[in-house]
Amino acid sequence: MMSYRRERIRDAADRVAPERDAWIARNSFYYDDDRRYMRFLVPEGLRVLELGCGTGDLLARLHPRRGVGVDISPRMIDIAKQKQPDLEFLVGDVEDPDTVAALDGPFDVIILSDTIGALDDCETTLAGLHRLCTRETRLVIAYYSHLWEPILKIAEGLGGKMPQPEQNWLSTWDIMGLLNLADFEVIKREWRQLTPKRLLGIGRLINRFIAPLPMIRMLCLRNYVVARPARNTALGKPSTTVVVPCRNERGNIEPAVRHMSPFCDDLEIIFVEGHSSDGTYEEALRVRDAHPQRDIKVLRQDGTGKGDAVRKGFDAARGEVLMILDADLTVDPQDLPKFYRAIAAGKGEFINGSRFVYPMEGEAMRFLNYWANRTFSVIFSYLLNQRFTDTLCGTKVLTRRAYQAIVRDRAYFGEFDPFGDFDLIFGAAKENLKIVEVPVRYGARTYGTTQISRFTHGWLLLRMVVFAFRKLKAL
Quick one: how far is CA 123 from the chain centroid? Predict the structure, then answer.
């Protein structure tokens, strides 16, 4: 049975429904910025459910393959059906289990935009959404910062903001706690809109370049939380492909195979050779033939660079899990079972190696490289909204499904990364994948010479910082 508070919220929504479009037009700067970021969080072409959809404007802007909106207000839903006939709209109380049970899921994304504040029991409502989720579903919650409560109440009193009944003013930490109680795992948090007004044209610049800055962003009006289900995340015993990009690594091919234990029931190894001058390709063929009991394939790279080699290897791979192992073997192949256990158990969806937890061998990394990597890791943790201690560790693991999602939206970033590390890292952040780091022991080379130039690649890292800020923050 609907509570008295929920009835008041429904009645208030019915009253404001005919005027909602006018309010949106009056505050178009605020709504455009919010919709822009929601489109960044939610790629086009997915199955999207919006709970508390109003007249369906946000849902329509996301261009879903299947879009379903639910709202407590019959008048809101009537208008939504007239405006967006290609989408599905239902009248219902999201706190009513029967409403949730009637929805035909699952969905790729479930959105609660300015809905969490109207709920009587947030924890129970969130927990009830699991039946509409797969392990890849993302829950996106958008809401007002509690710091803005007095300002918004004044704006409402002066007629500058659409009137609303009393809300739950929840902090980001409150939302995270409720999600944890409901068995959802928070992936990222973001704060946006330092100003909801144009301010003679400078509002957009403030929101793009000043609002995302550390500390300042905590003062923003809009808060966003993205979470994934924490139930049934294990993958079982997935098949795996290890892609080994190799250029002038002849002496490391045999050790790569010998040191790589068959850590899963179905393991494929793909060497992708990149126009070597030391006979690496021929050695890879010899090793393949010398180990007929192993499923080893040898490909020759068409283009140049590690990124090109990784893409060729991943495109040819048949495993459900995709791994990268650098052929310099500074990360021991014997560490790969740790990565496999992490992803198979569902601990994360993008597993990144970290060389900065355990002590390194003396010559493994030069002094300037070490401190540059540490500095850039702090910067990229901020830019990606997930913790990174080592962006350039070559060992990276993800599922085929996650990689296909990155490929699907690769045009957002374009062809920008010759190494392939940032193509995958930025893509994982854009796709809201859960990123987990696995510590590895980083050793010195035993064959060949490093292909890393501290100054050339240091400059590349600086370019990546600027690129990431533009594409991930200054939207």
Answer: 24
Res 62: pLDDT? 97
Q: Using one digit for the tens of pLDDT, what is the confidence trace for 144-200?
A: 998 998 998 898 888 888 888 888 889 999 999 999 999 999 999 999 999 999 999
Please state, for a pLDDT cut of 70, what percent of the chain lies above it.
93
Residues 6+ apart with CB under 8 A from 50: 56, 58, 59, 67, 68, 69, 70, 110, 111, 112, 113
Give the model's pLDDT for residue 241. 98
- Kindly provide the residue ranges of all beta strands, DSSP E only, lying in 171-316, ordered along the sequence: 184-192, 222-229, 240-246, 267-273, 295-300
The CATH number given to 240-473 is 3.90.550.10
- The neighbour count for residue 201, using CB atoms within 10 Å, is 7
- Which 3 state secondary structure label does DSSP give 472? helix
Buried b (16+ CB within 10 A) or exposed e, 440-465: bbbbebeebeeeeeeeebbebbeebe
Residues 65 and 58: their CA atoms lie apart, in Å, by: 14
Residue limits of CATH 3.40.50.150 in the chain: 4-229
- Rounded-to-integer distance, Cα 106 and Cα 93, Å: 19
pTM over 0.90: yes
d(CA 166, CA 324): 52
SS3 397: strand
Q: Name the CATH architecture for the domain at 4-229.
A: 3-Layer(aba) Sandwich (3.40)
- Residue 374: the pLDDT is 74
Residues 6+ apart with CB under 8 A from 335: 353, 395, 438, 440, 441
Which residues does the chain have with pLDDT short of 70?
358-371, 418, 443-458
- pLDDT the model gives residue 3: 86
**Structure tokens belonging to residue 217:** 């962003």
**Residue from 97, 4, 103 nearest 53 by CA:** 103
* Separation between Cα atoms, residue 226 and residue 223, nearest integer Å: 10
Quote the pLDDT of residue 324.
97
**Nearest alpha carbon to residue 464 among 433, 422, 407, 419:** 422
